[in-house]
């Protein structure tokens, strides 16, 4: 039973993704997905948090974000009903933890009755994007103290703030700080403080029952290893009894299920036999202010691999 818990569309993530959300879902059905988690990026609330492509008319760009989120939820509910006989659609969003003040806002978005879960993700250090381009990454390094080691320390401290405040069911790209590093495959145990923070964060996630995603976008981004919660962190998390989920982090049709077989083989090499997703009741839809009931669903890695043989 193939699935993803992390996906985007160009319709509701313009500038970063491609294609209409309905086309993404239809393609996911065609490749054999039985469950898809929709996780468009949440709206930001401050002009300082806009990306470069949003700065031509910043006030308008900011004003469009909240209505776009509402339009996304409306369309997601429509699609959930329209394709209920073909695919189990979970409705969520990807959080943006730029600073602690975003915590209550994320919680308010998650309280929406149709929302099943959200991704707890960091894309910034000290409110500076770390996955946009190298110039912004260097700004983030400078803001953290001038070295990648200091950037990693700050990243995991801010991630810990997010984890403590929100306890997200799914933790997105656990070590995104590696993406634009000069040495993304570095053994971070050489940085004692960084490794201690990683272990602290993993222990916290395992303790409250959160899931780390196996995010196969690491492979399409040509990282030297599957470093989203890379081998060292994954093995540590396994020892703690931690659980994993699967995601392609697709940003359009072309990236749906990209590198899934390689990602699954990677998990197997670490001794992971099962990954987890959610099943909602009722499906589709909820009424009034009542949320759906969610059940954890264990899926054997070997079963998903059969979908891509």
UniProtKB/TrEMBL annotation:
<dbReference type="Pfam" id="PF02811">
    <property type="entry name" value="PHP"/>
</dbReference>
<dbReference type="InterPro" id="IPR010140">
    <property type="entry name" value="Histidinol_P_phosphatase_HisJ"/>
</dbReference>
<comment type="pathway">
    <text>Amino-acid biosynthesis; L-histidine biosynthesis; L-histidine from 5-phospho-alpha-D-ribose 1-diphosphate: step 8/9.</text>
</comment>
<keyword id="KW-0028">Amino-acid biosynthesis</keyword>
<protein>
    <recommendedName>
        <fullName>Histidinol-phosphatase</fullName>
        <ecNumber>3.1.3.15</ecNumber>
    </recommendedName>
</protein>
<keyword id="KW-0378">Hydrolase</keyword>
<keyword id="KW-0368">Histidine biosynthesis</keyword>
<dbReference type="InterPro" id="IPR004013">
    <property type="entry name" value="PHP_dom"/>
</dbReference>
<comment type="similarity">
    <text>Belongs to the PHP hydrolase family. HisK subfamily.</text>
</comment>
<dbReference type="InterPro" id="IPR016195">
    <property type="entry name" value="Pol/histidinol_Pase-like"/>
</dbReference>
<feature type="domain" description="PHP">
    <location>
        <begin position="5"/>
        <end position="217"/>
    </location>
</feature>
């Amino acid at each position: 039973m193939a699935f993803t818990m992390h996906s985007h569309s160009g319709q509701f993530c313009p500038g970063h993704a491609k294609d209409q959300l309905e086309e993404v879902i239809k393609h996911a059905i065609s490749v054999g997905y039985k469950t898809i988690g929709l996780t468009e990026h949440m709206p930001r609330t401050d002009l300082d948090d806009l990306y470069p492509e949003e700065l031509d008319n910043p006030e308008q760009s900011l004003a469009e974000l909240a209505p776009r989120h509402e339009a996304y939820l409306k369309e997601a509910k429509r699609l959930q009903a329209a394709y209920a006989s073909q695919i189990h659609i979970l409705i969520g969003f990807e959080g943006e933890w730029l600073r602690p003040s975003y915590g209550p806002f994320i919680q308010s978005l998650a309280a929406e009755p149709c929302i099943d879960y959200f991704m707890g993700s960091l894309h910034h250090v000290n409110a500076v994007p770390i996955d946009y381009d190298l110039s912004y990454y260097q700004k983030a390094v400078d803001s953290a103290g001038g070295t990648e080691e200091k950037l990693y320390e700050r990243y995991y401290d801010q991630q810990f703030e997010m984890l403590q405040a929100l306890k997200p069911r799914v933790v997105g790209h656990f070590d995104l700080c590696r993406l634009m590093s000069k040495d993304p495959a570095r053994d971070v145990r050489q940085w004692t403080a960084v490794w201690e923070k990683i272990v602290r964060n993993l222990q916290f996630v395992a303790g409250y029952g959160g899931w780390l995603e196996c995010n196969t976008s690491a492979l399409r981004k040509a990282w030297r290893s599957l470093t989203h919660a890379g081998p060292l962190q994954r093995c540590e998390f396994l020892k703690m009894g931690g659980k994993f989920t699967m995601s392609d982090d697709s940003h359009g049709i072309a990236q749906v299920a990209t590198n899934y077989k390689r990602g699954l083989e990677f998990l197997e090499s670490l001794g992971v036999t099962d990954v987890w997703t959610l099943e909602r009741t009722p499906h589709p839809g909820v009424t009034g202010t009542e949320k759906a009931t969610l059940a954890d669903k264990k899926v054997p890695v070997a079963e998903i691999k059969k979908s891509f043989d």
